[in-house]
Amino acid sequence: MSELASCFTIQLNGEEYTIDGDAHLPALLERLQMRRGRVAVEINQAIVPRVQYGGVTLKPGDKVEIINFVGGG
Amino acid sequence: MARQSILIVGMGGLGVPAAAALVRGGAERLGLVDPDPVELSNLARQVIYGAASLGRLKAAAAAQRLREARPGLSVEAYPVALDRTNAADLIARYDFVIDATDDPAAKFLINDSCLEAGRPFVYAGVLGLSGQAMTVLPGRTACLRCLFEEAPDPAEIASCREAGIIGPAAAVIGEIEAAEALRWLSGGVPELAGKILTYDGSASGRMRVLAVSARAGCGCGAARRVEAAAAFTPARNQ
To answer: What is the pTM of this model?
Structure first.
């Protein structure tokens, strides 16, 4: 996957974040220790269906929002 | 049709501050759903209950306290768990629903039942010092499944019993839920319709509001509208 190894910045939950390495969305979730079964991911204001996560490669300047499901009350 | 009644599902950390705020805000008719009795551990953050409430069913104890707080208020107590057998019937009796449950599956049941009944509702969840809330207008704004698709595996969710809830987070989010309901009752559009508010009461202390769009393929009415609109968008010239 060397062709995906790269270094650039995105906006992650409103703050600048550096992608250094694998730019696939699942790699980002893994780096953040977030489980795909409990998050919603929005990229550039469009929600990404979970079945498509594996095919998403982040690009410089992407606005990424990752929302953890919170179930308590 | 006049908008005047609100169903609160769950009378715990979220439901108690939501109910109190609704009474202060002038709501006329409330329904309270909760199957559990008041336990000693509830008293710290669910301040509507006192020592005399211990062992009583939360729905009944809360209804009594709210009537005392505002005579004339109409409050119905339902000491049952919301489930597939009663959700449609209970939700149909009210104009707006507040999700204040502590169970992810119940939150998705509220989502599905409200979409089916065409009832607006506000989803919320809290954990530790954090929380979130989003209002859903069926057929108009993104639903819970647009965002999270399905209830997470229980093993993946740190429950309140394991991770705890810190009182202020539940109070903040519960009051926000009440504000959403009151906006709807007054004829307005809830502030969080089509948006999710996230509150991190820990180190960052950050509160954010994020617009969320319906997810293509979700199957809810809002998603179908978006898909239909896209289908009618003229194709660009190659």
So the answer is: 0.92
